[in-house]
């Protein structure tokens, strides 16, 4: 199974701030975020679709991936300049319909905080008919995968394929996972899925609330 593994120690610092308002001043009302509503989906495990390995050539540019899920849109700004091999491959997979009707198969809620997607088989072992090397790796420091980061899952060195994970809380991990983008819209969806927990009540496994990728648009 392709997994992200946490080995660095983590620490959490909570800062308590007291806000003072001048006499007569009124704090602006806090706008509550809209609730996340997940619709029924007919996504299910299925055979991997073969996609022709794309040619990686300049000019390299940043891209926007819009993942339409049964729980809403998740928009990812992809860094094609820092991770050109990865973004080129993922764009080819997305444009070829590889991700359509696939569900996110792995949620981790303890020490590392990720939602993992991108395997049509739903087993954690599926992927395309090609792999490629890692790139744009972070430093081995605390919170090297901050909330909103999107990175590749792998099964060892240079085995990137289709599976990726979205970090929903700051996370410290070995710097072995290619960072290729960040969530610019929809991180609250991932957080809502995480809040529901894992099917079997543990800290790692299939999300209790199914979230499925219905389709992907790349521009």
Automatic annotation (TrEMBL):
One of its GO terms (molecular function) is peptidyl-prolyl cis-trans isomerase activity. InterPro entries: Cyclophilin-like_dom_sf (IPR029000), Cyclophilin-type_PPIase_dom (IPR002130), Cyclophilin_A-like (IPR044666). Residues 72-218 form the PPIase cyclophilin-type domain. Pfam families: Pro_isomerase. This is Unannotated protein. It comes from freshwater metagenome. The lineage of its organism: unclassified sequences, metagenomes, ecological metagenomes.
């Amino acid at each position: 199974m392709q997994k992200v593994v946490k080995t660095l120690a983590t620490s959490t610092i909570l800062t308590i701030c007291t806000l003072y308002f001048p006499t007569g001043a009124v704090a602006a009302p806090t706008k509550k975020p809209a609730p996340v509503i997940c619709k029924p989906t007919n996504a299910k495990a299925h055979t991997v679709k073969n996609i022709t390995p794309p040619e990686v050539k300049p000019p390299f540019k940043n891209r926007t991936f819009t993942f339409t899920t049964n729980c809403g849109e998740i928009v990812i700004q992809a860094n094609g300049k820092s991770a050109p091999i990865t973004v080129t491959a993922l764009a080819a997979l997305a444009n070829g319909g590889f991700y359509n009707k696939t569900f996110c198969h792995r949620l981790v809620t303890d020490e590392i905080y990720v939602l993992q997607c991108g395997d049509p088989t739903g087993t954690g072992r599926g992927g395309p008919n090609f792999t490629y090397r890692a790139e744009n790796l972070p430093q081995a420091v605390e919170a090297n995968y901050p909330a909103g980061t999107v990175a590749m899952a792998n099964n060892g060195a240079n085995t990137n394929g289709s599976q990726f994970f979205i970090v929903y809380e700051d996370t410290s991990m070995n710097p072995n996972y290619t960072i290729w983008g960040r969530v610019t819209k929809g991180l609250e969806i991932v957080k809502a899925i995480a809040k529901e927990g894992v099917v079997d009540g543990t800290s790692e496994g299939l999300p209790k609330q199914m979230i499925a990728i219905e389709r992907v648009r790349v521009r």
